[in-house]
Amino acid sequence: MSLNEFELIKQYFTRQAKHSSVVKSIGDDCAILSIPENQHLVVSMDTLVVGRHFPEFATPYHMATRAMCTTVSDLAAMGATPLWFTLGLTLPGIDKEWLAEFSRGLFDLADQFDMDLIGGDTTQGPLTITIQVHGAVAIDQVLRRDSANIGDRLFVSGCVGDGAAALAAIQHNIDPSPEAKKYLLSRFYRPLPQIELGKALAPFARAAIDISDGLLADAQHIADASEVGLVIDVDRLPIHHYLQQYDLDVVRKWALAGGDDYQLLFTVSDATLPDIAALAKEKGISIAEIGSVVAASEGVQCYAGGVPYSLSTGSLLSQQPKGYQHFTA
Ligand code: ADP
Ligand code: MG
């Protein structure tokens, strides 16, 4: 590694670790970490490719905040507390201004999530950002995709459809008011993960997933992993008021197939319904009941106005109706 790269790491990515669990941070061949007692270590990685996961014209600050939020969302979905992360950075060249803004975005979010950057890798090539996040969760309280039971109720946090609407605004397919645009851009570049909700749900919820590919695609993941079916009431999808001016079918497509919402989709048993309602109220987090868990033979079905509802075929913002998948035609 050239001197330049060592200097780059030292100057832009090395900070004093906050967690006592970090025995050795950046600077040796490996980081040395102690895992909190009686907790599982949960690990997830996401790669963001310029032009695919964020537009070429996004600022380096926004690239960092989006990369952090979307990756940490996987920890929220497991009910985990974020601890550490590593950064794989492929850069076309060394641009000090770019690095300063990127690292500012990275550490703004690291501070917000109380995480330490404990290592990484730096290479030259087309701009690509890979973040691996590590979190801890009590051994008996991990939220998983495979634990939904027939009879459970299906809930979603926050609003759905914002991610796809934001993309439509970025691509100038819609022209929202300045306030609506501000909201949508913040949902795209800083989609704050539902960490508090995930942690609070861990003792109560049955199954959970974060909505990254699209509500329907992620519901299908729960259905497949849990070997159940799901019935979704499209009329009950929580839609932000900024989206309500648009054509209902378009909004439903955004909400069901758009993805990039980073809300939690989760199931709870009847017995824990009061606990879930109480914790949502206590934490001031909005959650909506949107359906229920049925037998696997029913598949994942949507209803609107009491009759079956299907997304019309055709593309949505160049995405497949059932959520985003790489390597598909
Ligand atoms: P090695 O050659 O032994 O694999 P490197 O020279 O790649 O190690 O990295 C030196 C140190 O800098 C390591 O602690 C590594 O984790 C850290 N590091 C490298 N790139 C980054 C980065 N982009 N962000 C944070 N830490 C990094
Ligand atoms: Mg080494």
Explain what the structure shows:
This protein has 329 residues and is an alpha+beta fold. Helices cover 33% and strands 25% of the residues. The chain has nine helices and 13 strands. The protein has helices at 3-13, 60-77, 96-113, 162-170, 178-189, 195-201, 215-226, 248-258, 273-283, and strands at 22-24, 32-33, 39-49, 81-91, 116-124, 128-138, 153-157, 207-210, 229-233, 264-268, 287-294, 300-304, 307-308. The strands form three sheets. Strands 8-10-7-11-9-12-13 form a seven-stranded mixed sheet. A four-stranded mixed sheet has the order 3-6-4-5. Helix 2 packs parallel to helix 3 (96-113) and helix 4 crosses helix 8. It is globular. 42% of the residues are buried. The model is unreliable at 313-321 (pLDDT under 50). The protein binds adenosine-5'-diphosphate and magnesium ion. Residues 1, 9, 13, 26-29, 87, 89, 117, 119-122 line the site of adenosine-5'-diphosphate.
Beta-strand content: 15-25%
Number of helices: 9
Q: Round the mean pLDDT to the nearest integer and report it.
A: 93
H/E element order? HEEEHEHEEEHHHEHEHEHEEE
Strand order of the largest sheet: 8-10-7-11-9-12-13
Strands, total number: 13
Biggest sheet descriptor: 7 strands, mixed
Helix content: 25-40%
Classification by helices and strands: alpha+beta
Distance from N terminus to C terminus (CA atoms, Å) equals 39 Å
Low-confidence stretches: 313-321
Task: Show the helix and strand layout.
Layout: H1 3-13, E1 22-24, E2 32-33, E3 39-49, H2 60-77, E4 81-91, H3 96-113, E5 116-124, E6 128-138, E7 153-157, H4 162-170, H5 178-189, H6 195-201, E8 207-210, H7 215-226, E9 229-233, H8 248-258, E10 264-268, H9 273-283, E11 287-294, E12 300-304, E13 307-308
Parallel strand pairs: 4-5, 9-12
Antiparallel strand pairs: 1-2, 3-6, 4-6, 7-10, 7-11, 8-10, 9-11, 12-13
